[in-house]
Amino acid sequence: MTRIFLRLIICLIFIPGVLKADTPNFVVIFIDDLGYGDIEPFGSKTNRTPNLNQMAKEGRTLTSFYVASPVCTPSRAALMTGCYPQRVGLAKGSGHAVLFPGDHYGLHPDEITIAETLKSVGYATGCFGKWHLGDQKQFLPTSQGFDTWFGIPYSNDMWPALKNFNCPDLPLMKDTEVVGIVKDMDDQADLCRKFTESAVTFIKENKRKPFFLYLPHAFVHNPRQASPVFMGSSANVEQAQVEEVDWSVGQILDTLRTENLA
Question: Is 0.85 surpassed by the pTM of this model?
Answer without folding.
Answer: yes
